[in-house]
Structure formats: C-alpha cells, structure tokens
Amino acid sequence: LDRDQTALSRDYTLNLSGSRYFRERSPIRDHAELDQRMRAGEISLALEIPPGFARDLRRGAPVTLGAWIDGAMPARAETVRGYVQGMHAHWLATLARQAGGGATAAPATIETRFRYNPDVKSLTAMVPAVIPLLLMMIPAMLTALSVVREKELGSIVNLYVTPVTRLEF
Fold first, then answer.
1. 50 by DSSP, 3-state: which?
2. Are the CB atoms for 80 and 63 separated by under 8 Å?
3. Which one of 28, 66, 100, 141 has the lowest number of neighbouring Cβ atoms within 10 Å?
4. How far is CA 53 from CA 2, 33, 69, 99, 161, in A?
C-alpha cells in the first residue's frame, strides 16, 4: 500500500519483492482491499508506506512503515516478521552507505501488526489441528485395545483356529 509513490518507496518495495523470501502481488489500493486479500489468503504480508516517506527520510525525520502480517499461523508470522525486519535493516544500511554516512540511527522504523491473531498465540492455531489428530488416533487405539482385550479373555483363540486365510479374514 504505497501512499508515497516515489522512486525511494518503489526501491524499498523492490528490495523486498526482489528477495527469495517474498513474491510480489499486485499493488493494494486501500485498507479494505488489504483486508479482503488477507482474509482470502492471497497475501500474508502487506507493507504500508506513508505519504511523504521519501521527503521525511531525506530530511532525517522519523518515518514509520506499517507491516501487516497474517497471524493465523503464528510460526509463519514470526518468520515473516524476522525476514521483514532483517531486510529493512539491510535496506537502511545500504541507504546510509550510498549517502556516504556510516552506521547511523534508523531514520525509518517498522511497526508490525498481526491480523487475525494479534497476540500471536499458538493455542488458536493448535486447537483446530488437534481435532483431526484425535479422529485419526482414537480409532486406532480402540482397535488395538479391543484386540488386546480379546486376547486376554481368550476369545481370540476361536479366530485363530478357524480355517480362513489371512486375506479372507
């Protein structure tokens, strides 16, 4: 969501989209589209570049970028956040080197917001995954327990002495 539309803001987005970690999608026009595309699962990261980004960066004024991350899968969300922060720091260092300066304080910061799981808690992602696991494991355990019980009672011997083959059984 590039609200600045300058060469510097395009350079910033190209820095992320040119990496092997992210694939660029078509630009976002407004917050409603951002929300709709994130809900549809089309994107898991959206960057919001404020108006006046390049101007404020050249003046040395503090600039805050927005990084909207889909928090539905907490592990992936944390990984995305780490990549974005690392690439942001690398872009700032490259910009400082090109300007002829050394390591300076970061003139631009990233404000990260997780959508659909703002606290990035694993519980909300784990509970739905446990239900299919239980549906797979409980029948197998009950089958094993019933065979063991039949063996304890001795009624499985009747099955062993029948004249059927394994395939017929």
1. coil
2. no
3. 100
4. 9, 22, 21, 17, 83
Contact 61, 14 (CB under 8 A): no
Q: How far apart are CA 110 and CA 66, in angstroms?
A: 6
Rounded CA gap, 76 and 79, in Å?
A: 5
- In single-letter form, the type of residue at position 138 comes to I
> pLDDT tens digits for 108-118?
777 777 776 67
Residue type present at position 148:
V
pTM beyond 0.85, yes or no: no
Q: What is the pLDDT of residues 21-33, one digit of tens each?
A: 888 888 888 889 9
